[in-house]
Amino acid sequence: MKERRKYRRVKMGIKLVFKLMGIEGEVTLPTADLGGGGIRLFVNKKVKIGTLVELGLILPHEEQIFFSLGEVVWQMKDATKTQRGENLYETGVKFINLDIAHRMRLIRFIYKKLREGKNEV
């Protein structure tokens, strides 16, 4: 199968603040992997493909949060139940307007983690 991703991805979690556009409230969500073009995360509700989301990302060992608009590009049909009984849907989000400086910071972080032996997705 041919790889369609433009950016390499690393399997690791980061702190992520997630908010559905037009809906009040934000949540901190677990992430599974990230790349320069998007992120795979776990959402506690069904979300339609094409839904716009606001993302706030904080890389490990950094305090500065950076923001991006995102678009849900896929979501698993069935939820995974956590040990605490929560239903979480694995969801892919594409960064839409991630500032080039922040994208480069994210890419440098990913390549550093790959050199350290983190798993590539």
Give an overview of the whole structure.
The protein is mainly β and 121 residues long. The mean pLDDT is 86. The protein has one helix at 100-115; strands at residues 9-11, 15-20, 27-29, 31-35, 38-43, 52-58, 66-75, 80-81, 87-95. The chain has a single domain, classed as Beta Barrel (Thrombin, subunit H). It has one helix and nine strands. Strands 1, 2, 3, 4, 5, 6, 7, 8 and 9 form a nine-stranded antiparallel beta sheet that branches.
Sequence-ordered SSE layout with sheet pairings:
Elements lengths: L8 E3 L3 E6 L6 E3 L1 E5 L2 E6 L8 E7 L7 E10 L4 E2 L5 E9 L4 H16 L6
Antiparallel strand pairs: 1-4, 2-3, 2-6, 4-5, 5-9, 6-7, 7-9, 8-9
Main features:
9-stranded antiparallel sheet; Thrombin, subunit H; 121 residues
Summarize the structure.
With 121 residues, the chain is mostly beta strands. The chain contains 1 helix and 9 strands, in the order βββββββββα.
Give the proportion of residues in helices: 10-25%
Tell me the structural class. Answer: mainly beta
**What is the end-to-end distance?**
14 Å
Q: Judging by the overall fold, what is the CATH architecture?
A: Beta Barrel
Output the radius of gyration.
Answer: 14 Å
What series of H and E elements makes up the topology? EEEEEEEEEH
Q: What is the CATH topology descriptor?
A: Thrombin, subunit H
pLDDT average, as an integer? 86
Describe the main β-sheet briefly: 9 strands, antiparallel
Gross morphology is globular
For the record, the CATH class is Mainly Beta
Find the CATH superfamily.
Answer: predicted glycosyltransferase like domains
